[in-house]
Amino acid sequence: MIQQGRLNVVLELVGERGNVSIAEVSQALGVSTATVRRDLNALAEQGLVTRTHGGASALGSAYELPLQYKIARQAEAKVAIARAVADLIEPGESVGLNGGTTTSEVARMLGRSERLRVGPDKVGVTIVTNALNIAYEMSVRDHIKIVVTGGFPRRQSYELVGPLVGAALRGFSLNTAVLGVDGLSAAFGATTIHEGEADASSEIAAVAQRVIVAADSTKLGRSTFARIRPLNEIDILVTDAEVSPGFAADLAAAGVELVVAAPAEAGEADGPGPTSSDAD
What we know:
Blueprint: H1 3-17, E1 19-21, H2 22-29, H3 33-45, E2 50-52, E3 55-57, H4 75-87, E4 94-97, H5 101-112, E5 125-129, H6 132-138, E6 144-148, E7 152-153, E8 160-161, H7 163-169, E9 174-180, E10 183-185, E11 189-192, H8 195-206, E12 208-214, E13 226-229, E14 236-239, H9 245-253, E15 257-260
InterPro entries: Carb_Metab_HTH_regulators, DeoR-like_C, DeoR_HTH, NagB/RpiA_transferase-like, Tscrpt_reg_HTH_DeoR_CS, WH-like_DNA-bd_sf, WH_DNA-bd_sf
Protein name: Alkaline phosphatase
Keywords: DNA-binding, Transcription, Transcription regulation
């Protein structure tokens, strides 16, 4: 396993357990303790973990993997979800996208879609986003018109946050908002880890006629720190697997349409982001 893959696994272990020992990582990865020490030191130098005697720990209780380390997680599910979301978008629509690996894949599906290439100037979809990586990657697509909100960038996610996001969006009326989330539950609706990202995503949803949540099955039935939207203000959930009967009943009671994406075709996976380091 190359170092990038090892770092992904280490960060997931830290996120799940809060702290790990060198011996635990060595056993999980099947590598020497010397290699583990180098990997933990590399993550600590990047400010992603706290190095401890004999291991490493998460930086805080609301631990968040940086976007570039999320690329490979649930990759096939995200491709399938993105394809299903793209099928819900019609030519000429304006679509709001927040940041994250799933919405980045949605943007790529929209960018590759021949169905959405309409009109003499081939402007098939307008994407309004607070995600710098999506804006950069889609700027080369001749049938995609990109509008970027204002705001201050977060290093963890490439998303613009702050009051300038809402100030820019209030002048728009979007057909559809597609939101990536960190959690979706009956009690708290759509949630994310960072309150600034929650505010920005809420602003995108507020100016949309239809709100789609794109979330793989690992996000369902859980809630995280900051609420984006209550469940009854979501129109469609697109996910990759059938949900439990109880959660299906909660969705129906809230008026949320459930779309279960077909499995991704062989060989498809999340493509790389706009830089060699890039990842809901």
